[in-house]
Amino acid sequence: MNIGEYTYEELNISNESTIVISYNTSSSAALLLVNASNYASYANNERTEEIYSSKVENSGVKELNVSPGSYYVILKAEYKPINYSFYIFVSPPSKLKSVNFSNEYTDNFSLSNYTNFSIDLISNKEIDMILPNYYNYIIQPYEEFQITAYLNRGPQKIIFKTNSSSRLFFYINSTNEIINPVSLINKSSPNPMGIASYGTYLKQGKLQTFKIKTNEIIGTANITSIYAYSSDPPENTSPYGASIQLNAMMNVISDNKTYQYWLQDVMSLNTSSLEYQIYSNMWNDTKLGANLSKSQLIGDGYIGTTYIKYNNSKIKTSFYGSYDSNNLNNKLSYPIYFSPVITVNNTSIGPRVNFGYYTQNGYRFFNNVTIKILNSTSYIEVTPYYEAGNGNSFDVGLVFGGESNDESSKFYNMNSTEDLYYVSNDSLIAFPYLYTFGINTGESASDLSTSVINNKIITEIGSPNYNEIITESQHYNSNKTYALQNESKAFINPTSGYEVDLQNGNPSISQIYEFVYKNSFKLLILILTIIILYTIKFLIFKNHNK
Predict the structure, then answer these.
(1) DSSP 8-state code for residue 140
(2) Alpha-carbon distance 31 to 44, whole Å?
(3) DSSP per position, 327-352
(4) Which residues, 6+ apart, have CB-to-CB distance to 330 below 8 Å?
(5) Distance between CA 28 and CA 58 in Å, rounded?
(6) Using CB atoms within 10 A of its CB, is residue 499 exposed (0-12), middle (13-18) or buried (19+)?
(7) Which residues pair with 60 in a beta bridge?
(8) What is the pLDDT of residues 149-178, one digit of tens each?
């Protein structure tokens, strides 16, 4: 910049603020702050009233407090040509932090909601800035740095590191956000299709919200035709494979800590032979790459390992799984009716999850697993206000996709009607607003479209309609409480799950423990009654033979 030339930045400030100005000049220069009304005079080399004026040289940072208004910050070469850098950010005075530190400084903060987070930063030395699980940046001295990220609720921290004594200026701004499910999918690639609830809906073009907590969810699918094919199926997966999955996020709270587990109740199907299997999975979504082990669980299933995709890499993780031994490679015939159910019960040991499906004799629970988390409260949750620790959404869905192992299947034939319910106060209630796609599962489908036809939710062949929301008024009446399809079908009250499981003849250790624990008083009375009756019988027999 030659002698007499200047650079400037215009600022429109609506509240009391602090302007942070960094400069780096090869020679002395003038740093000025003027009102917008006086800038025209300054530009014409006329005498101007200045709010601030200072001679600056080399490198430095200035803080100027200002009232609401319009301003110009000016850097001018008055005496010699100069090389320069010149950066500005504006902060509320209460949020601006000025820190002197050596080696390392950590700023801890907590968020109550899913948050649009940003930070503006200037330092007088080169520093490393680490936002765990998100960013790691090297910040150059006297250069403004800004990032924006979406952060989950809960405790957060930013770590700053330097090799020498540094002075750091930064301003954190955070705004509560609603998680918009449409923004989470890649519309150019296949996705799981069907119905799902995310706790959001559109009203007059604006995203509205609701939250649901429940201990039981039920899906229904009545499939009259289905055919899928994958030209490059994953290992151990049929090229004709497809699945329909009831998926949900379970939230567990214990000692002011939260844990998230993703639950899957699945029917996988060879769409050529109509052979099928029913299985369940549980994943630890508390943080990215979290695992499950036998020592954490009480159940009759197995621990499997797999790799999940994250950005451009794969992370090894483990999960819990169980197959229904009554339905291994059996054959189906049309129409195919699949009604999966997942229940969550709080026990003295920890949350117990039951996976089942409807049969002619009621619901059969084929997998029951307890997570050892003492003093815990657990429930299935739908909310747009926060994510699981690994970034997955809190949703419930009944969706179609490939068979397993992240298979993507192309569907050539499909006709199915679906519904999705939750239990509240012993009533079966339809999820009020539904999207037409799932997010969290790795299996996907192409050429499927879900819509409402004649007051029924129908999935059939068609172009995916990711933006469509199925509203309550399109297919439900006003009281929102319903029976399952063919209204004579009953559903299991979750509080009676122990007796149902034991009658099925497949009790796990945790079931037996809980059954005995919950019915200990009744059992004691029964045993005492038997003892008394046998004593009386013995005395009568003894007296009779005297």
Answers:
(1) P
(2) 18
(3) EEEEE--SSEEE-EEEEEEE-SSSEE
(4) 275, 276
(5) 7
(6) middle
(7) 23
(8) 999 998 899 999 999 899 999 999 999 999
